[in-house]
Design a protein that fits this description.
By secondary structure, this protein is an alpha+beta fold. The protein is 37% helix and 25% strand.
C-alpha cells in the first residue's frame, strides 16, 4: 500500500469523484455524472474556503478514493475546534483493501495537526457495513443526526 498518495483534489479529479459518489444505491438516486457543472461549481467554492480540504487517494495515477474534511471552530466544549469528515468514497475495485482505513487515519491525523479536539462524521442509517467500519476505527455512534432538505 506504499504506492498510495493522498493529495488535494484538482479539477481533473472531479469526474472520477462524481463517478464514485454515484456508484452505490444511495448515490445512484441523487448524483448526475452526466452533468459535471454543479460539481465543478461546488469544487470552486470548496477550493476558495480555507476550512475545507477535498482530497483524493491516488494509486498508479488513478483516483481510488476521496473524502472532504471541514474544520469548524466553535464555542462548545470550551471553545473546541472540531473537524467533520464527509463524502467518503472508495472505488469499487479498492473496497476491503485497507484504503478506507488509510483515508480516515489521514483525516484524523490532519485534524490533530490543525488543533481539532473532536472528529465527527455522519453515515446513512442504511450503511451498516460503514457503521461497523467507523466503530472499528474508534468512532462511537454517540448522537442521533437530523437533516432538513431545502
Amino acid at each position: 500500500m506504499g504506492d498510495l498518495e493522498i493529495r488535494r483534489t484538482t479539477e481533473d479529479d472531479i469526474p472520477a469523484i462524481v463517478a464514485m459518489l454515484a456508484d452505490d444505491p444511495l448515490g445512484a438516486r441523487r448524483e448526475s455524472p452526466d452533468d459535471l457543472s454543479p460539481y465543478l461549481a461546488a469544487f470552486e467554492r470548496l477550493r476558495a474556503d480555507p476550512q475545507q480540504q477535498l482530497v483524493v487517494a491516488v494509486r498508479e495515477d488513478r483516483v481510488v478514493g476521496t473524502l472532504q474534511l471541514t474544520v469548524v471552530p466553535g464555542l462548545s466544549r470550551r471553545g473546541a475546534t472540531r473537524s467533520i469528515i464527509e463524502g467518503v468514497r472508495i472505488h469499487a475495485d479498492e473496497r476491503s483493501s485497507g484504503l478506507g482505513t488509510q483515508l480516515i487515519e489521514w483525516a484524523v491525523a490532519e485534524s490533530r495537526r490543525q488543533g481539532c479536539h473532536l472528529v465527527q462524521l455522519t453515515s446513512d442509517k442504511t450503511r451498516t457495513d460503514a457503521h461497523r467500519f467507523y466503530e472499528r476505527l474508534g468512532f462511537s455512534a454517540s448522537h442521533t443526526g437530523f437533516k432538513l432538505e431545502l
